[in-house]
Amino acid sequence: MDVIVDLQYGDCGKGKVAHFLCQNEKYTHVLRYNGGCNAGHTIFHKGKKFITHHIPAGVFFGVRSIIGSGCVLDPKQFFREIKILEDGGVSTKGKIFIAENTHVITNAHKGEDKQKGGKIGTTGRGNGPAYRDKYGRTGVRARDVKRLKPYLVNLYKEWYTPARPLRSRRVKILAEGAQGFGLDIDWGDYPYVTSSHCTTAGALLNGLPPSSIRNVWGVAKIYETYVGSKKFQPKGEVFDKIGDAGEEYGATTGRRRQCNWMNMQTLERAIQMNGVTDIVFNKIDVLRTIGEWAVIDKNKVVPFKTEKAMKDFVSKRLKTLGLSPRRIHFSESKENI
Question: Using CA atoms, how far apart are residues 120 and 14, in angstroms rounded to an integer?
Answer without folding.
Answer: 24
